[in-house]
Amino acid sequence: MPANNNVNRGRGMTARAPVSKKAKRGAIRRLVGYVFRYYPGQFALVLLCVLLTSATSVISAYAIGNIIVNDYITPSLNAGINYIGTPNVDIAASTSGFTNGLPFWAAIVILAGIFFVGIAANYFYNLLMSYIGQGVQRRIRDELFAHMEQLPVSYFDRRGRGDIMSVYTNDVDALREMLSRVLPMVASSLVTMVVCLVFMLMSDLVLTAIVLGFGIVIFLLTRYFSKMSSHYFIEQQIELGKMDSYIEEMTSGQRVVKVFNYEERNIEGFKQHNDTFFKDSVKANRFANILMPTVNQLGNIQYALLALVGSLFIANGWTSYYLVGSRVYSVAAIGIIISFLMYSKTFVQPIGQVSQQLNAFALAIAGAARIFAMMDEPTEVDEGYVELCNAKEGPDGNPVECKERTGRWAWKHPHHDGSPTTYRWLQGEVTFDHVDFAYIPGKTVLHDITLYAEPGQKVAFVGPTGAGKTTITNLINRFYDIEDGKVRYDGININKIKKKDLRHSLGIVLQDTRLFTDTIKENIRFGNPDATDEQVVAAAKLANADYFIEHLPQGYDTVLSNAGASLSQGQRQLLAIARAAVADPPVMILDEATSSIDSRTEALVQEGMDRLMKGRTVFVIAHRLSTVQNADVIMVIDGGRIIERGSHEELLAKKGKYYQLYTGNSIAF
Amino acid sequence: MANKKTRAAKYADMRQEETFQHSIVQTVRYLSKYMHGYWKDTIITWCAVLVESICEVLVVYFMQDLINSVQNLGTTTTMNSVYLYAGIMAACALVAVGAGILAGIFAASASAGFGKNLREAMFIHIQDYSFRNIDKFSTSSIVTRTTTDVTNVQNAVLMIIRAVVRAPFLMIISLIMCFITDWKLAWIFLIIIPIVLFALLGLAKVVHPYFVKVFNTYDDLNESVEENVDGIRVVKSFNREEDQIRHFNGVSDLIYRCFFHAESIINFNSPVMQGAVYTAELLIAYFASYQIVGHHRVSYDGSAMNVGKLSTLITYVMLIMMSLMLISMVYTMIIIGRNSSERIVEILEEKPEIVSPANPIREVPNGEVDFEDVSYAYVQGKPVLNHINVKVPSGATIGILGSTGSSKTTLVSLIARLYDVTEGKVLVGGHDVRDYDLRVLRDAVAVVLQKNTLFTGTIRDNLKWGNANATDEEIMKACDVAQVTPFLKDMPDGLDTKISQGGTNVSGGQKQRLCIARALLKNPKILILDDSTSACDTHTDALIREGLQHERTDVTKFIIAQRVLSVKDCDEIWVMNEGKIVNRGNSETLLETSQVYRELYESQLGGGDFDASK
To answer: B528 pairs with which residues across the strands?
Structure first.
């Protein structure tokens, strides 16, 4: 069912970037590497079992002609001795050489035994292949995800969500398809064909040549048909994407459709898409459909041809050559031709199957190459060595490291020059010293940013969209590394601080709240995995989230699915505040939401934010008047520079950009 | 923390067991309607498949004669009979190829045609949906159902359409041929077929729930990835990478185990088939050998068992097994396709809630609106509008203020009958809105929605939604009133400027103004602006209101706004809270009677509105 597989693959697969030949070769090597590294024994067993299975299926073809017909039936017919009906008459010598001296029933029993081994081997290798295939997939999946978690934020900016998602959905899926279905099938097909070929070569060279000729024709035909059909499948897929977005657009815009009575024109538009899709679909399936009947019947035509040629050999008494000798067919050797006819079928059958799978194989390799490319992306670099530690106050008021939790933290700063490790209280002082930053080297987006926040101070950033407010806050927690200048936390250059500890000392509430599929409780605990239930509830109360949580059917144990889609924007913000509160860091980065939430919730959010800010150093990207008014210092950012700074009153008196923003005369905001 | 590991398993188990509203027969009967126009293709397919199957069996039948001719070459047969039977066999194979190709082609168009009909029927039906109908499914679900699900069913049909004839026919003919070839041996098939069929179908049935579970778990896995891609900043900020990896590994492991389990069941398929083939082969060989040798001594005529018949019987084994495999595949397809078809039938069977009455009124006399004791509840028992009683004369301008959740939008949506009241009635021009033809009513009521949408196409295409036959002159007039003209001048292609999907290439304020122009082109009797100038600056907002006041004096206008400034000059302002109009009156009156209004007024017009221009 190639059709099915193609269609079910994720959308947008056609728009993916192509993968180079070299990358594909590398991908195959690495993929095979997984199998050999983790499952060498199992894989060897698989090969053995495949061989057994294939041998059995060839033997079954061999047995009918060479053993049953040649060794028993023909001699019985010719010699007039019933080797079959008389159980204890031993056969003197057999043409096949396998059954010397065996009574007929014993031959049958031995064959049954061989078949049973074959069947058992068949199941066993399929099972092992599932084990290996699924195991390799799990390993790759896990490694990929673990690696992804270590990638820098800039990677996610660069690649975009859809692109990354499709590595997991399309590429890992293509890999699954290949490892669990295509690979075992191809492996057993190839082994069967090889075994079959050996038997054929041992029987008759001319007839083997005919079979090989047909094999090539079938292979080429299948390639052609699959190529044509996959071409149209891609067309169909593109059209499906278009139809998809049409329906999406019209269904989500259904209100507009209704208020404008647009239904009929809408249906006309849909019919056009539907019709194109229909045409592509017909073409794609046509090619896929005519493949199998053609291949099957070619096998039959080949069969007739082989019988004919074989007969000519018999009738004319031509010499038949096989790999290690030659013979003239006698009536007695008729079984050789009969068996050959069966090998030919066994040989040709997998060709169609294998060549059909080549598309899936190519797709999977391209997918694997993309997976490995992602796994080769450099991870976040962390050369920091300053750590956070629990501390208590020493006799001189300076911190002294201790094991137990004191609720107070200190920076533990070892020195490269051999001088003793120094300790400094974690206080939350942040300074920017002539900082420049560029996302892309050479294209500086922040110029000469200098600012100073003492512990407990509030710094508000205002300015038009794209001015660089978010970028500044992203530098503090080292989502990006600065190009020039210095950022210091409690006087320590943040490049020297271990990222984990730096981020531990910073809280963050983003404009767009991200929640995870889990209970509300766990979502809040996200801020601090060690928080007790009491601390979680306390944080929710501080954030004003307690009230709505208590009104949910399962309270704190309510499971949020779909990234909390069932909650309102405001409620999600409250949870984000609670999450930051439970982390309880000395420095907070807040990005106030711009989107309108209802005034009641807005008041709650505002209050929660205010409580969260209390006693902390805060960097806030401000949109609300009250936030700005309460800030110790306001930075007006435009074009990546701080263009004005001061308190609300000072800036208003200046009548500059801030005044413009405040009075609402500027629409650039 | 200990429960972390099982988190994935917990949610996987929480999913509901699948239940079906319809039996398979009902679903098939229901969906077969959509084959219309393609029955011809279907029947041609069936005929072709029939011919193909007959030829395939004939191929095997003549194979027997061919082999006998080869076997007895020089004794009872000559090369002539070899030529004859090889020729017949090849001819049959060629006919089978032809028929097979024919079947393939027509099956492709029949199934694609079926899919096309089905999609179209669904899309047309969805156009009649009310919002409540749409909300029931959600947009993304509707999209999946009309595309992915239909494609799944279409693929199932593609396979089934041929297999439904081929599998039973091939099996029956082969069986008959076996009896004709040698009735004394054919009993072997009668025993093996039911056993294999039972085993294959049993496997398919047993394994299905495991696959369902696997794919559900895949959804969880993707969700986990999606959350981490979207929320990578949060994860990194809170140093939760390891925890996320642990969670992911849990889901990943669950997939591994389920999948392995499912495959270890489905892996029995191939041994069952092989076992059956080998068993049949050996039994036939054993008994046939006895007969061949036995008969030879008595007589040697063609009717008795011979080597040719022996190999023919074995080939029939293959044919029969193939048809059994086909049956099991069809069965699996039906199981898989059933989810999809059920989801499709749900869309088609959903009853549109809001439809035109039998004898509708076809003209709206004027723009008078009267709410008589109106209540509305999205969810039964939880009304969001409570007994609204208010009358608006034709041509009046009403301003509506209130916090989110106070049901302002719901109230005005009832006028265009976007929802039907739960209690009471809404009258437009003196008639209950439910007595109007829907088209007529909605032509008379223009709503500029809060969540507004522009569509892919040019600006002109979008504006023509209001009136398909609008001249450029009319369009420009509407653009003047809606303050579109000032920015339209700066657009490179003017009215022919392309709008991308979702209107992302125009600013929020421009989008709102285009939407107002689009609504004006309808020449409505009632105009509803639902928070539709919020992204415009106050100056533009004022110009629009001024334009409306002068250009559309006879139109009844409802203006929902966040800004006091936008409604200050209305004939009447309603202050809404929790589904009720708590205060009514003009601005002066409200400043005295409504605390809410006074506070809003003072905070917005008293000081500067810091964020107003956003």
So the answer is: B447, B558
